[in-house]
């Protein structure tokens, strides 16, 4: 297949795209008319801001999000493959296909031998790691930890043990409305000398990135509220 699947980065929050999205991104995808997105309304707004304004109604959008069944995603891919035209995947924030529903579409493209073209943009995971002062040579992305208390605490203990064994930075994310509860569980489960970095609102005006030991965090406390955050631990 000669058509390409472009992976298009998006801002991590409500800030002007030109501050975090390289100008070349629009140049590369200016010909694309088919987009797989998490939310059509926000994708239309974003594309209008980076250069598609005036032609937005000529674009075709297909939703691929956490509610999409595998057969729905396969249906989107079939439309894409049969059209013979390039398509782009856009996440709601940051880089698509990383802890993101777009990964399923990328997997289908790879299986079909299609060219997948990743475009550079902000990654909350890598930016948090960069600023944490933790081990950037040995790290692992643990994704979302379990929601339920007992399962979550068990998983946190496992991650801390792995971090201690391999001197490995463990990177976690959580939905914003559960950030504070995850923060408290980390303090309750991890040892006092384990280092914890909380990176919230990355690239936004209220950006907050701090690394302290669990013992220090217990003294200072922190309220994250509903800000998107990345959590990193190093035992």
TrEMBL record:
Give the record's GO biological process terms. Answer: methylation; rRNA processing
Looking at the Swiss-Prot or TrEMBL record, what is one Pfam family this protein matches? TP_methylase
Stored InterPro entries: 4pyrrol_Mease, 4pyrrol_Methylase_sf, 4pyrrole_Mease_sub1, 4pyrrole_Mease_sub2, rRNA_ssu_MeTfrase_I
- Write out the GO MF terms: methyltransferase activity
Residues forming the Tetrapyrrole methylase domain are 66-216
Is Iron there in the keyword field? no
Is the keyword DNA-binding in the record? no
Give UniProt keywords alphabetically: Cytoplasm, Methyltransferase, rRNA processing, S-adenosyl-L-methionine, Transferase
Q: What is this protein called?
A: SAM-dependent methyltransferase
Q: Which organism is it from?
A: Candidatus Coprenecus stercoravium
